[in-house]
């Protein structure tokens, strides 16, 4: 029997069933047994790499079908199997249709049948994970292209994405988030709602000027606009909900007014809230002690554990050694892969053309060339340039 590292979850109030799973599979798999559906859902939220979920039909509380449906929202790539003594066509139909179960097994189940079902479920999970990874890479590339294009035409709204993405990945590593796709998508797409706001409101907010109640309401509702734009796009439904709650304070403040509080707010939403406010509080060169002190004035708005972790890993951003060579280039010398160290500004008006930390692509370089020909760009431009590995020389003959 092949050893698997991804968890197997069993939810059944029958102690004998739970002991049987541990006896049969505990030496080869990470088997996690629960008698209560709510406890199992909490485990799934912390272990989103779960491979297979077994549930009984008559589960106390919400019931097995509703539990499997709820688990799908948390770990969609997991294979879900129902164990039950119910044999009616109605029970089978409800399990397969409403619970989105992969397989229906009748109790009592022979050990060899259970082992075969588990192997089949694991193969299904591996294929689901492979397909999802490929789809995520494709979608991530499309979103990156979209954000690059939007950033060219609305640089003020999208100027923070490159910086916040780097910070989010460092923070995710510190707190143990292994899969960061949803976090990266949320960061990149977070300015969409702001891009639709009147520029005068954004300008007043960024200059720390007072806003009218109506203007503040418009600003607070930008996450809702983002959700409306994204919620009908497959694979981005969950990201849209994370963004919708990204203005919600840990203490229950902010938008939406009747939203969750504390740890009930998704962790990615809490990260976005913290890093977005930190970005606005930070000077151009990055977060410093004063920026964190500004957040501490209203520290109840932020998850205290995330705030402490961010302080630990982000305060040394300025002192962190650059991995690449710093070069001063004219536009004609820029290369795809160069990372902007400073904002690129228009020559005379000082209008923002492209924000710092942006990784240049052939499209953005051409955009800079066109902008320079029509309006003018301040040069030289400081970039971080990574050496390109030389191609190995093939021996002749």
From TrEMBL:
Example GO BP: phosphorelay signal transduction system
Keyword field contains Hydrolase: yes
Keywords: Hydrolase
Keyword Hydrolase: yes
Residues covered by the Response regulatory domain: 7-122
EC number: 3.1.4.52
Enzyme category, top tier: hydrolase
Alphabetical list of SMART domains matching this protein: REC (SM00448)
InterPro entries per record: CheY-like_superfamily, Cyclic_di-GMP/3'3'-cGAMP_PDE, Sig_transdc_resp-reg_receiver
PANTHER family: CYCLIC DI-GMP PHOSPHODIESTERASE TM_0186-RELATED
Name the UniProt record assigns to this protein: Cyclic di-GMP phosphodiesterase response regulator RpfG
């Amino acid at each position: 029997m092949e050893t698997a590292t991804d968890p197997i979850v069993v939810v059944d109030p029958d102690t004998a069933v739970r002991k049987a799973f541990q006896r049969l599979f505990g030496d080869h798999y990470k088997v996690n047994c629960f008698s209560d559906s709510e406890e199992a859902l909490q485990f799934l939220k912390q272990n989103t790499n779960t491979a297979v979920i077994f549930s009984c039909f008559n589960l106390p509380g919400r019931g097995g079908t509703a539990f499997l449906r709820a688990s799908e929202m948390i770990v969609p790539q997991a294979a879900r199997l129902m164990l039950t003594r119910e044999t009616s066509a109605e029970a089978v139909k409800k399990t397969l249709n409403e619970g989105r179960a992969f397989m229906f097994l009748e109790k009592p189940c022979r050990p060899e049948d259970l082992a075969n079902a588990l192997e089949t479920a694991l193969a299904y999970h591996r294929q689901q994970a492979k397909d999802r990874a490929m789809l995520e890479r494709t979608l991530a590339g499309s979103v990156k292209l979209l954000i690059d294009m939007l950033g060219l035409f609305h640089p003020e709204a999208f100027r923070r994405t490159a910086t916040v993405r780097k910070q989010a990945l460092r923070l995710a590593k510190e707190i143990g988030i292994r899969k960061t796709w949803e976090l990266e998508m949320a960061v990149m797409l977070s300015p969409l709602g702001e891009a639709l706001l009147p520029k005068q409101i954004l300008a007043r907010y960024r200059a720390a000027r007072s806003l009218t109640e109506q203007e503040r309401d418009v600003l607070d509702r930008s996450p809702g606009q983002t959700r409306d734009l994204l919620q009908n796009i497959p694979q981005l439904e969950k990201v849209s909900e994370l963004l919708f709650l990204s203005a919600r304070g840990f203490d229950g403040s902010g938008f939406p007014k009747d939203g969750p509080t504390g740890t009930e707010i998704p962790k990615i939403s809490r990260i976005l809230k913290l890093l977005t406010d930190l970005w606005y509080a930070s000077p151009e060169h990055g977060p410093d002690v004063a920026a964190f002190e500004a957040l501490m004035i209203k520290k109840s708005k932020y998850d205290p554990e995330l705030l402490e972790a961010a302080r630990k890993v982000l305060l040394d951003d300025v002192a962190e050694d650059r991995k690449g060579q710093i070069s001063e280039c004219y536009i004609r010398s820029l290369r795809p892969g160069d990372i902007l160290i400073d904002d690129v500004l228009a020559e005379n008006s000082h209008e923002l053309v492209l924000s710092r930390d942006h990784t240049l692509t052939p499209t953005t370089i051409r955009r800079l060339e066109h902008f320079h020909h029509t309006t003018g760009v301040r040069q030289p431009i400081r970039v971080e340039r990574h050496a390109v590995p030389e191609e190995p020389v093939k021996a002749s003959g």
